[in-house]
Amino acid sequence: MKAPLRPADVSQVVECVRDADGAGLALRAGGTKDRLGRATSATTDVDLSALSGIVTYEPEELILIARPATSLVEVEELLAQNGQHLAFEPTHWGPAATLGGTLGVGASGPRRFVAGAARDFVLGMEFVDGLGRVIRTGGRVVKNVTGYDLWRSLVGAYGTLGVMTEICLKLWPLPETQQTLAVSGQTRTDALAQMYAWSRRPEAVTGLAYSDGTLLARIEGSTAAIEPQIKALWQDASAGEILADTESRRCWERLREAGALTAARGEVLYRIVVPPSRAEETVVALERMELCRCCLDWAGGLLWAVLPRDCPPARVHTAATEAGGMAARLSQGPEDPNDEAFTPLPEGVARLNTTLRQTIDPQGRFNPGRLYN
Fold first, then answer.
1. Topology of 259-330 in CATH?
2. 180 neighbors 216 (Cβ within 8 angstroms)
3. Using CA atoms, how far apart are residues 170 and 172, in angstroms rounded to an integer?
4. Which CATH fold topology does 177-256 show?
5. Taking Cα atoms as reference points, which of 255, 266, 271 lies closest to residue 332?
6. Pairing between strand 44-47 and 25-28?
7. What's the rounded Cα separation, in Å, for the pair 49 and 63?
8. Considering only CA atoms, which of 365, 370, 373 is closest in space to residue 5?
9. Are 25 and 46 in contact (CB under 8 A)?
10. Under a CB-based contact definition with an 8 Å cutoff, are residues 24 and 43 in contact?
């Protein structure tokens, strides 16, 4: 690797891109999401940590504009002071987590199944494309312009399309309080059936997960509204412990971080997204691969799974594909190339992705190889 480049503003980002002369650029800031994706073949590091700070915050308009290397903790603390939050409940994976890195991998937390994905909260963006052009797309209001949502293409693109320089997000009011019903001793089959039933109830259920034999259901809202709702779920389950606000928050913060699972030596962590109705068959398929531990989130739509390292990733990807979903293997460190990080895309989708990449980054400068070849 050459000496890292450290652009301090958008003009210096443009200069870095135009001076790249065909060299691959590895984009990085906090580094907390490095385990996601394949190892890049880039020859030059670009340290984006100087592109930080809040540009504009308009609480009354529910709008925040920030630079990509802004600390996720800083953003959340600022919003909380004004009774607002990022409703997609972003995954951190460490105190150095940044806004741009989180959006770059599309990291959505437990509230995803009711609030939407990270990309749904991006109203607009300024970024530098592979030709060194500064692109401003989208808007700064919730009722946005019509047309192709180009900025959302960068969310979940793993830094392969451009360098984000400003991000405009829509915000939601922060619920006054929350409580969680924890029902232990549940089988996975019963828990999945219960999660499906509760996801269709009128109560404000914003979290449904199953971990270590315990079914978890979160209710958020005003203090007055929560009490009867959580009691209604408790009566429906005929059992369970009710976790008060502080304990409930800690519970879901743990689940937000890879389902509170870690891979030990000789193990690998996978993130698998499937239709909730196919979760059971997916876990059964993984059990045939000697599944070590797992956690179900998003009412069954997200599966965190720990498998033996010698389990061929292709088998996991096949199981995800057969269930109508996708899997992502997390690398075990810088020495792990993670070549089979992602489930292969269908031919049509792969062709569209290639066309988009060739249009925005025709020379393949940004994070080459990290997403797909």
1. Alpha-Beta Plaits (3.30.70)
2. yes
3. 7
4. Alpha-Beta Plaits (3.30.70)
5. 266
6. parallel
7. 23
8. 365
9. yes
10. yes
- Fold equal for 47-173 and 177-256: no
Quickly tell me which residue has 């019963």 as its tokens: 190
Give the type of residue at 205. V
CA 189 to chain CA centroid, nearest Å: 26
Mean pLDDT of the chain, nearest integer: 93
Q: Where are the alpha helices (DSSP H) in 151-222?
A: 188-199
User: Which neighbouring-strand residues pair with 218?
Assistant: 180, 207
Q: Which two tokens stand for residue 353?
A: 């992705």
Task: Count Cβ atoms below 10 Å from residue 100 Cβ, excluding itself.
Answer: 29
Supply the DSSP symbol for 314: H
Residue ranges per domain, the chain?
47-173, 177-256, 259-330
| CATH class in words for 47-173 | alpha beta
* CA–CA distance, 217 with 209 (Å, rounded to integer): 7
CB count in 10 Å sphere of residue 53 = 11
Q: What is the pLDDT of residues 226-274, one digit of tens each?
A: 999 999 999 999 989 999 999 999 999 999 999 999 999 999 999 999 9
Distance between CA atoms of residues 272 and 305, nearest Å = 8
Helix (H, G, I), strand (E, B) or coil at 216: strand
In angstroms, rounded to a whole number, what is the distance separating the alpha carbons of residues 366 and 373?
Answer: 12
Are the C-beta atoms of 168 and 124 separated by less than 8 Å? yes
pLDDT score of 147? 46
Distance from chain centroid for Cα 303: 13
Q: What is the pLDDT of residue 242?
A: 97
